[in-house]
């Protein structure tokens, strides 16, 4: 059973927590920087992209971390029953695709879309076409099941 977990963002100057559902980054709870003194100190946002429709994203403010966390969990518990596994898979695929592209660039390789023929060689040695690219990334270079 998946539950929500939090990880502190060590690179953020203001306190910031990334919220995960299993392996999927589903939102953020953070101290709001540069807000007037009489405004709520904490902000939260719940949702992920790709996978969700823009109108499914939720966000709010609270005076305390505990308050923000409670509102976040309420929003998430409302959202979760409406999500299909496809939404999470869309997010996972995007992560895998981005990592794959960075590795191709790091290794100085061209993407199929950058070749006139539409065919290129992956860093794993496979020959890949534009049409077969998504399937190759999903099968060979992601944790998707
Ligand atoms: Zn490959």
Helix and strand arrangement:
Elements: E1 4-8, E2 16-21, E3 24-31, E4 42-46, E5 58-62, H1 65-79, H2 85-106, E6 119-121, E7 127-129, H3 133-140
Antiparallel strand pairs: 1-2, 2-3, 3-4, 4-5, 6-7
The protein binds zinc ion (ZN).
Zinc ion binds next to helix 3.
Explain the overall architecture.
This protein folds into 2 domains: 4-82, no CATH class; 85-140, no CATH class. Helix content is 31%, strand content 24%. The protein contains 3 helices and 7 strands; from the N terminus they run E-E-E-E-E-H-H-E-E-H. The chain has helices at residues 65-79, 85-106, 133-140, and strands at residues 4-8, 16-21, 24-31, 42-46, 58-62, 119-121, 127-129. The strands form 2 sheets. A 5-stranded antiparallel sheet has the order 1-2-3-4-5. Strands 6-7 form a two-stranded antiparallel sheet. Strand 6 (119-121) and strand 7 form a beta hairpin. The longest helix is centred in the middle third of the chain and has 22 residues, at 85-106. It is elongated, with a radius of gyration of 19 Å. The mean pLDDT is 95. The structure holds zinc ion.
Q: Which descriptors would you attach to this protein?
A:
alpha+beta, single chain, binds zinc ion, two-stranded antiparallel ribbon
Main sheet? 5 strands, antiparallel
**Through-space gap between termini:** 17 Å
List cofactors, ions and other ligands: zinc ion
Work out the number of β strands: 7
User: Strand share of the residues?
Assistant: 15-25%
């Amino acid at each position: 059973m998946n539950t929500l977990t939090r990880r502190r963002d060590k690179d953020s100057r203001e306190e910031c927590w990334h919220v995960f559902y299993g392996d999927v980054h589903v939102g953020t709870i953070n101290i709001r920087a540069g807000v007037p003194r009489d405004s709520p100190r904490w902000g939260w946002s719940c949702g992920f992209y790709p996978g969700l429709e823009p109108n499914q994203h939720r966000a709010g403010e609270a005076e305390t971390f505990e308050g923000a966390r409670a509102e976040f969990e309420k929003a998430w518990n409302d959202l979760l029953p409406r999500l299909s596994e496809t939404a999470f898979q869309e997010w996972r695929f995007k992560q895998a695709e981005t990592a794959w592209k960075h590795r191709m660039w790091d290794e100085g390789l061209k993407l199929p879309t950058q070749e006139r023929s539409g065919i290129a060689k992956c860093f794993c040695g496979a020959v890949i076409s534009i049409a077969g690219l998504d399937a190759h990334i999903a099968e060979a270079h992601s944790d998707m099941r």
